[in-house]
Amino acid sequence: MERNLRIVSGLILYLFVVGHLLNLALGVISAGLIDEARPIFMYLWTSRIGSLVLMTSFLVHMVLGFRTLYLRNTLNLPPYDLAQFASGFLIPPLLFPHVWGIVSMEDILHITPTYPRLMQLFWIDSPLEGLRQVLVVVVVWIHGSIGIFTWLNLKPWWSRVAPMVYPLIVMVPVLALLGFVEGGNQAIRDYEAAINSEASQPQAGNDGYSAEPANPYGQAAPAESAQPTAATYEFIYKVKWWSILAYLAALAGVLVARAIRLSGKSGNVEITYEDGTRISAPVGHTFLELSHLNHVPHANLCRGRGRCGTCRVRILAASAPLPEPNSVEQTALKITRSGPDVRLACQCVPGAGTIEIERLFEAGLSHRELHDGHPETKEAPSGQTIGEGV
Amino acid sequence: MAQAFSPITRCTGFVSSLIVLVFMAGFLLLSVQLSSAQSEATSGAATSETSPSLDISQPGSQELRDLLRLLDNPEIRKWLEEGAREAAGPLPATADAGSWRDDLQRLTETMHNRLTVLNALWSNISAAPQMIADAWQSQLSNTETLQTVIYAVIFLFIGAAIEWLYNQYIKYRAMQIEFANPHTLGAKARSMLSLYAYSMGSVLFFAVGSIGAFLGFEWSPLIKGIVLDFLILVLILRIVYATSKALFAPRLPQMRLVPLKRRRASKAHRWVMILAFAAGLSVFISSLFARSFVLMEGTVPSQAALSVAVLLNSILTVLFLAAIWSMASSAQVRPQDQVRRRGLSNHWPTYLSMLAVISFFLWLIDAGGLMGTVLVLGLLLPVMKLTGAWINYLFDLGSRPLSGQSTALVAGLEVVNDATSETVASSMAEEPASHSNLIYRSVCRRIARFVLIILSGLALAWVWGINLFDLSGEKTFSGTLFDILVNTLFAVLLADLTWHWAKSTIDRRLAEYVPPADGHAPGPEARMATLLPLLRIILMVTLMMVVALSILTSLGVNIGPLLAGAGVLGIAVGFGTQALVRDVVSGIFFLIDDAFRIGEYIEIENLRGTVESISIRSLRVRHHRGMVHTIPFGELKSLTNYSRDWVIMKLEFRVPFDTDLALVKKLVKKIGVELQENEIYGKSILQTLKSQGVRRMEEFNMVVGVKFMAKPGEQWLIRRDAYQKVRDAFSANGILFAERNVKVEVLSNQPMDEATRQAVVGAAQNAVERNVPKTPPPDEP
Predict the structure, then answer these.
(1) What pLDDT, in 10s, does the model give residues B520-547?
(2) Does the CB of B177 have a partner CB in chain A at under 8 Å?
(3) In a 3-state reduction of DSSP, which class is residue B695?
(4) Using an 8 Å Cβ cutoff, are B14 and B28 in contact?
(5) Which of A334, A337, A338, A330 is nearest to A314 (CA)?
(6) Residues A94, B112 contacting (CB under 8 angstroms)
(7) Rounded distance, CA A361 to CA A375, Å?
(8) Percentage of chain B lying above the pLDDT 70 cut
(9) What's the 3-state SS for B404-437?
(10) B672 and B708 in contact (C-beta within 8 Å)?
């Protein structure tokens, strides 16, 4: 349930981001094209239902992120997980000013947020916002792509399609950013032209590029006929910062809760692998986390989400009984028809004591091998993996 | 083996921190050199006091060249060229004077100027940041600064994206290499190199992506320079990261080629990255100032730049000290090792810290050349020691191919306890090192030392701004001295390397030679035992001659007449000793041909005997009857060797015509078997005695041939027994040997009286004896 919710909300958000970035990517062809194509790309999301769905997905995804953070036993993660985790928690504070800016522009200041206007804002009036914008593209794209890939990794057709998809994954944000640069350069050129023409004739033609800064993000002067008061700007500004602070407070709260949750654990667990490697670490981590923390190779195609079953280990000896499998582990063990001595390393948290385990899959396992009769398995009958099971 | 291994484990701490040091030295030298060049350049414009090291276009290292290429901003270049022209003014005058005193004076003047600037700097340093900020703002507005940052972020992202794409396609290949467990040194090195190639490929794609995207746009020169500087800084840091990671392999113990345990390897790696980052940042900031302040006039910005440089270099020095002491503290794991540590290795942290601090202060007083010298010379010895230890370690690694299980064991234990795995490693290394391993090890160490000395010489030349190849043009005292030193050093090192290699090879061959036991023929090694000492002496004399002559040349002595004189003398002596030379030379060739060995029985024309000794000129042969022949090699035309491989001996028996040949054949066969079973010479018989049937018919008898094949020298004894046994067998089986008899046909039918019969017999006897050819008995040993 929770996993499906995460995937669905993530997919909706990703779809929106792809559309948005593709729109921006048109700037590579010509800066004017971005704004012309805007209604087409934004059609789906500007409707009431569309924006509602988008907002809901965002909130659901964020809450699920907090939940994952709370349940994490260690923050010393493998690179990909760390990237996904960190980028995920960076998104809200980076993104909120943008979203709020657009919303406030339309609904409070009653200015249509066109691309030329925004380009001028991002590149000339408030380049710090532009920098934030670039960062948010990078961060969102990293987070979303890792999520999508981790989900698709286990599909049997993915290993064939992946080599074709990789270039696309790279092309979308790269082109979008290049479009952003091109749009910015155009804005700078127009701005300089406007200044020059203003110097020659005082009445400047208002063609969307105003020499006056039009900054709805806070401190700047009004530009349109609605003549919003300074109090309105103050309000917009305050809401922006208060919401960021609220987010940070929530994050800190989750971290504190997590620390409280983990503080009860004590003792050391010592694990011996089948090849003689021995590690020793404080309790509170899953087998998979222990392997990663001690740089012991351990297969895990779904990155510890309990979907693939490649991290399974056979318990050869244990000084104390292991905790009962949770529901995710039970499902995985049932689908793979594993014996009673086999556990899912990404879900099972061993208690203090000494344990001897055998990894059932080679660490260098690739997705292709997983579906092509998995030659690496050391265990023929129950070497089946979940694949599309979840 | 254990002996060869234990010094390594003992000095791992020393080794590990020296590895850090190698990286450090490069950075320190580079950054300090660059920043001093820049500050000199900036201060040079103000005071118009210039030093020869203004010429910064010396291609010292790739990184420097890259950075300098960035400085190719036309304005900067123009300005630098002006500075260089100014500098060229006073230079010829001093070069003409060309004395040590002038060099010294120039140095002290530079120092004095720098001290004046420094004094002013200390009084102004609080104002420096504001000054810098103002200068920055005048060059670049806030908007522009932020725009630059946006560009940099975008290009970095594009580079990273392209690199990620590359990684997707090679990911599994690299992962397989990582998880493989190479057993031999070669396989280890191969895996390491391929991983390194992959990561460098990553960097390359990153570079293509980021710099490529950057070049696709039009930029103002200032932003272009700064962004490109930044991208190159990132690139260099990534290259350093990949290199350091490949070298230390902090997470892959099976691929680590340095004698460090995991914890220390990752520590070294971390320090290298910290230092690289600090040094890179310092260079970047310095170049930033050089870019922004070029258009400013007066001493103020140059002082600001200097203050920043002082700050950055102080931080750098402190970081170096921290790195040194951090590595030192991690090295002192086992107290019992400390007792064994002696000499330099006990004091190296202090020594290296002193070096860093002294270098920093020398830089502070603007004695760049002096600083470089101190740094290069001070690091030469430790680095040589380090390289030697490393080569030793690699050879140790190569001489014991690790079994997969023991590697896994080491890796496993390492996680739990570093010290335990060290003892395991050393206990595994009990297997004795092979001989060739030792030889190549020392040759490798010599080569490494040689290369290091040459490199340090080049570094010194670079530090002093001396072009080695132009040096002959300069007639200053120090220049000439340097020239002589370099030449001598080069010749001696090269000769030493050659000599060591040749000597160790020859000595190894000689050591392998075991003199044959008494009564056994010596093998082919014997001739090498004769030749090699000769070769060694010749080589030594030649090398000494060459070195002496080249030193004399570099000192300016004209060796032409010497050579000519030696040539004339050589010709005279050569004519006189023509025969001698011929003997020696042909002797060498006879030895190479392996025509004879000591102890072999040979025949030369009509002289025969056993080879007793071989000298340079002649051969001593002892005849089997005791005479000794001395034969100069030059006289040898052809030579017959009786002691090679096998000999065939043919025997003949004369039997009457009525002999049963089948019986003879049977008897001979039986005797052959008997001979073979003899315990003394049975083993020497290669093909035993066998009958060849009737070889020919003579007037009174048949000649039955028998033959056997035996090892050389054994045939006489076998022949003796064969004769004896054949005779016994024949007589036992009623076969008589044919006797020479004469049938006298008396035509009268009257009975002969006794006297007549005697006369007839006597006449016949005469006839028989007349017919028998008189042959001398064969001369056999």
Answers:
(1) 655 556 666 767 787 888 889 989 988 8
(2) no
(3) strand
(4) no
(5) A338
(6) no
(7) 9
(8) 69
(9) HHHHHHHHHHHHHCHHHHHHHHHHHCCCCCCHHH
(10) yes
pLDDT in tens, A14-52: 999 999 899 888 888 887 788 888 888 887 787 888 889
Strands A353-359 and A278-282: unpaired
Which of A223-227, B286-290, B694-698 shows the highest mean pLDDT? B694-698
Instruction: Indicate the SS3 state at residue B687.
Output: strand
Residues belonging to chain A with any Cβ–Cβ distance to chain B shorter than 8 Å: 123-124, 127-128, 130-131, 134-135, 138, 162-163, 166-167, 169-170, 173-174, 177-178, 180-181, 184-185, 273, 275-280, 294-295, 297, 362-364, 366
- Cα angle value B300/B306/B312 (rounded, 5°): 140
In sequence order, the β-bridge partners of residue B628 are B622
Could you give the angle at which helices B12-47 and B74-88 cross, rounded to 10 degrees? 80
Tens-place pLDDT, residues A112-125: 778 888 888 888 88
Work out the burial of residue B362: count CB atoms within 10 Å of its CB; fewer than 13 is exposed, 13-18 middle, 19 or more buried. buried
Closest CA to B416 of A296, A315, A300, A346: A296
Tokens representing residue A326 in the block: 């949770």
- How far away is chain B from the Cα of A52, in angstroms, using its nearest Cα? 31
Question: What Rg, from alpha-carbon coordinates, does chain B have?
Answer: 44
Scanning B89-182, the segments in alpha helix (DSSP H) are: 91-97, 100-124, 128-139, 142-179
B145-160 tens-digit pLDDT: 777 788 888 888 888 8
Interfacial B residues in 217-256 facing A (CB < 8 Å): 217-218, 251
Q: Calculate what percentage of chain A has a pLDDT beyond 90.
A: 10
The sign one gets for the Cα dihedral B714, B720, B721, B727 is: positive
Q: Please, what are the averages of pLDDT over each run of 10 residues along chain A (390 residues)?
A: 85 91 86 81 81 90 90 78 88 88 81 80 82 90 89 81 86 89 84 79 46 45 54 83 91 90 78 84 82 82 78 85 82 82 85 85 70 45 41
B157: which chain A residues are within 8 Å (Cβ-Cβ)?
Answer: 134, 138, 173-174, 177
How many residues comprise chain A?
390
Question: At A296, which amino acid appears?
Answer: V
Type of residue numbered A156: P
DSSP string of A167-184, one letter each residue: HHHHHHHHHHHHHHHHHH
**Residue B407 identity (one-letter amino acid):** T
Which residues in chain B are closer than 8 Å to A297, comparing Cβ atoms?
Answer: 178-179
What's the DSSP call for residue B703?
E
What is the β-pairing status of strands A353-359 and A268-272? parallel
Q: Residue B401 — very low, low, confident or very high, per pLDDT cuts 50/70/90?
A: low
pTM: 0.61
State residue B630's pLDDT score: 92
CB B269 within 8 A of CB B244: yes
**DSSP string for residues in A81-109:** HHHHHHHHHHHHHHHHHHHHHHHHHHHTS
Rounded-to-integer distance, Cα A35 and Cα A183, Å: 10
Task: Note whether A387 and A159 are within 8 A (CB).
Answer: no
Q: Which amino acid is at B222?
A: L
Alpha-helical regions (H) of B620-709: 661-677
CB nearest B154 (choices: A124, A127, A181): A181
Count of helix runs (H) and strand runs (E) in chain B: 25, 8
Angle formed by the axes of helices A127-152 and A2-25, nearest 10°: 130
A224, amino acid identity: E
Between CA A233 and CA A241, with CA A237 as vertex, the angle to 5 degrees is 170
Contact in structure between B327 and B13 (CB atoms under 8 Å): yes
Is A180 within 8 Å of B154 when comparing Cβ atoms? yes
Please report, as a single letter, which amino acid is at residue B362: L
Tokens of B659: 């002999």
